Structure formats: structure tokens, C-alpha cells
Amino acid sequence: MDAVIFTDTHADFPRELLARRPPALMPLAGGPVAELMLEGLARSGARRVVFVASDTPYLLERRFGHGERFGLDIRYILRRAVAGMREGLVKATPLLDRTFLVYDRLLVTDIDPGPVLAAHREAGAMLTVCAPRPDPADPPGPAFHVLDRDAAKDIPADFQDLSGWAATLPRHAVHTLHPAGVSVAVDGLPTYHRAVLASLAGLPPFSPSPGGVALGRQCEVHPTARLVPPVSLGDFTSIGRECVIGPMALLGERCVVDARSEILRSVVFSDGYVGREVTLDGRVVDRNLLVSPENGTVVRVPDAFLLGDAADPGLAQAVSRLLQRLLALAALIPSCLVLLPVLLVPGWRRRLIRREAAGEYVQRDLRGGKELRRFHMHELRVVNRFLRRLPALWDVAAGRLNLVGVEPLSPEEAESWRGSWADDRFKRPPGLVTPWRAMTSREPESDEKRVMENYYVQTWSLGEDMRILVKNLFVRRG
Predict the structure, then answer these.
(1) At residue 157, what are phi and psi to the nearest 5 degrees?
(2) By CB neighbour count within 10 A (0-12 exposed, 13-18 middle, 19+ buried), where does 306 fall?
(3) Phi, psi of 393, rounded to the nearest 5 degrees
(4) Fewest Cβ atoms closer than 10 Å to its Cβ: which of 78, 204, 425, 476?
(5) Helix, strand or coil for residue 382?
(6) Which residues are CB-contacts of 450 (< 8 A; sequence separation ≥ 6)?
(7) DSSP one-letter code for 36
(8) Helix-strand-coil percent breakdown of the chain, rounded to 5?
(9) Tens-place pLDDT, residues 435-472
């Protein structure tokens, strides 16, 4: 049994949240959304799962790998964001059995797909729609589908979901099932918040909550704090004195809640800081972002003493920059064996060029105006990528460039991205080694690079820089 999961066709989440994590990795009690889906498929005897995403398959691959810990063979397919479902299915079908499951949205369900596959084969229909309806008086719940490989190419190019396509097919071509069970879709912020509350309460299709309070490893809870079940705290989370956490509160890893704060019916993503005497009721918090699930309103809280990042990156950024400059100086010593002949031979000296590039935003005036920092970096005009960038080690040692950072763009190209959805990339300095070298084994397109850079900036850490650097040094790319 094989399955295809489309991770972002119904992703009605605020852009500010999606810049930091894809919907498939939004946390629920027990793990991210996609992880709960994979665990359910593994229990049902699935063999292979293909994720189809428009901009984030590398993040899923980093989290789930090739599926060894689930006993699955997991593959990842990239499709264009503007394309419909057909493009993703056509790319995925060579990896799949003749008949397979299709989840055209993120969907957690307790329905066993095995009997659904058998019913589809018996009916001989082009498409089977499995929409649970435990009570005949209730409308059908969110559906998943069964599709034959030959039918994928018949889907119109502009359709984004199979239910819409099913409505255009002849009646005999569609088989509809209403099995007993529960399905919960996570296709937007309101449905995500409801899924969090259901997972905390242990309601179907989620596993029953063991005791109502789930504590991660090495959590610190002050003796005067109260945990009102159901509550879930991630690893290394700290709760201050006289706090009230719950009911219905989900806190991710490494969160810090200061004294006399109250959190109920809310989600605090990993690394979030909640200041003193702050009350959160029915909110989603991602560091300094305060989001209302009912209407999707996003407020960026400027006061870090109210909401912010529990791991303040200021000192880490200074340490990272100093460490990268020291590493560049150390690398320059053996590099002189290559660079000195270039500087001494007149013919080779002409290959050393000095090009202008644009860096991160810098403050232009006291009113908050910003402009792109411009600098010069050195390169060799050669085909080999390693030799071409070797002189830029001097720019790193001089502080003009980071060892790890976003791609150094020409001023013209940087201006074309300024003020767009990729504006976050200009919050970090450019680097000699770029993050996508550690995220994917192929050369991404320009839009994909900007997506990866936005994610890198939003989730930056000193450890992540070192991981990218080590992976670039010791993993040979094709």
C-alpha cells in the first residue's frame, strides 16, 4: 500500500508563520502533523509514502529522512506553487503501485485504509472518495481518496483538490465510502487550533491522553506553578513561579514562561519566551508573533520582555561571526599555496576579480529607513567552484563576508528581491557557504534558494551554522 501526501494545497496559514515552518511540521500533542500521519500509515501496513510540496520538501526530508524509523520508504517531490495537483501526481506515480492513497490535504484519521483500497478495487471506479460520517445526521468529514495510476493524467491542470475533480466526473466513475471513524483536517489556522485542542484532550482520531499532563525531558516547573490538564510541555521547557498552564495548553521545546503568567487553550511554539504576568487565551505564539486562530490576525510584539525568543541570538551571533573569521584565517594559511602563484604570475593575476555585492539591511537614518549594505568580494575567474571562491576567504577574515550565510547577490538582483516575500533574507549577512548546500543535493532554482534563505534566517542558530559548514566540507556534492 502506497500513499501520496500533498502538504500545502490547502495551507491557509498566515504568511508570517509559514516563513518559519511548513504546515506539515506544525506541532500537535504527540508530534508534528505529518509525523502523526506517517505513524498512522505505518500501523496500517503502508510501504511507501511520497510527500509533494511546493517549497519545503527539504525541511520534511531533514525531519523524517527516508523513513527508517517508521518502517516506511519516504520520497519527496517538488512541484510549482502555481500548478495544480496533476503535476505532483504525474511526478509521483512512477514511484507508486498501480493503486494508491491520496491525501490532498494534511489529514489525521483513524480509518484503516486497507479496506478502503479493497472496496475501490471491487467497485472498479476511477476514483474512490473516503469521507467518514459516524452519524447519518452529520455531514461527511474531511476525505482522503484512492486513485489509479492511469487516472492521474486525466486530472485538469488547474484543480487543487480531488473532491472538486470528483464533482465533475460521471456518477459511475466515482465510488463514495462513509466508513465509521474520525478524520481531522489541518488545512488552515482555525482547523489547526481545533486539532491541537483535540489532540491534547486525547479525542479521536488522536491517542488517548495518558493522565492529562505530558512532560518532556528535563522540564523545570516551579513548585508554586499549577499545571491544569490537559497540558503538554516539550523538552527543556521552564515554567516560572505562580504560573497557571492549562487547561488545553501545548508548549514546544525550550520554552520559557516567566512568573505569574497564564496560558490556556493556546499553543507556544519551540524556543518561545512568555514574559511576566502575560495571559494567553486561545492564541498561537511563535516567538514574537501573536496569532489569533479565529481570524488569522498576526501581531508582531516589539517588546521582547512580553513575547520573544527564549534563546536570544545576540551573543550567539557575535560569537558566530568571530569564530567564522578565525576559521577563515586558519584556512588562509594553506590556501596561500594556491593563491601566491596566482598573485605572482601576471597572466593568472588578471583572473583575480573584485566584484560588487549587496549584503544585509543597515539602518540609514534615525527614522528607521533601511538600505542594503554594499561591499566588494574577491573571486577567481575559473570553472572550479572551490578555486573560484577561495580568495573570498580574505573577505571573511576582514569581516566583509560571513563564512556561512545567504547568497551574495549583485546589487541589481538584490534590489529586485527587496520588499518582496523574500525580504527576510536581508536580515542576515551573506556568506561564502550558503544554507541550501546542506539542505539539498541539487542546485535549486532562484525562488527555491530564497525560500531556503528565509527559513535559514528565521531559524538561525550557531549550531545550525556549524552544521551547514561541516556538511559542506565533508559531504561531496554531485
Answers:
(1) -65, -25
(2) middle
(3) -60, -35
(4) 476
(5) coil
(6) 417, 421, 422, 425
(7) H
(8) 35, 25, 40
(9) 887 777 777 888 888 888 888 887 787 888 888 888 87
CA 293 to chain centroid, in Å, comes to: 19
| Number of residues assigned to the chain | 478
Cell triple for 432: 561564502
With cell 551573543, the residue in question is 315
Interatomic CA distance for residues 55 and 447, integer angstroms = 9
Helix H or strand E encompassing 319? helix 313-344
Closest to 281 in 3D by CA, of 376, 344, 197, 359: 197
Reduce the DSSP state of residue 108 to 3 states and report it.
Answer: strand
Query: How would DSSP label each residue in 412-456?
Result: HHHHHHTTSTTGGGGGS-BEEE-THHHH-SS---HHHHHHHHHHH
Sign of CA dihedral 275, 317, 362, 359: negative
- Residue 111, pLDDT above cutoff 70: yes
Q: What is the predicted pLDDT for the residue at 478?
A: 41
Output the pTM of the full model.
0.73
- The DSSP-derived string for 261-294 is -EEESEEE-TTEEE-TT-EEES-EEETTEEE-TT
Which domains occur in the chain, in start order? Answer: 2-185 (3.90.550.10), 210-309 (2.160.10), 313-474 (no CATH)
430: β partners: 406
Q: How far apart are CA 442 and CA 76, in angstroms?
A: 13
Helix axes 33-43, 57-64, angle to 10 degrees: 60
Distance CA 470, CA 474 (A): 6
The answer to whether the beta carbons of residues 436 and 457 sit under 8 Å apart is: no
Distances (CA, A) of 205 to 15, 184, 194: 28, 7, 13
Average pLDDT (390-402) is 87
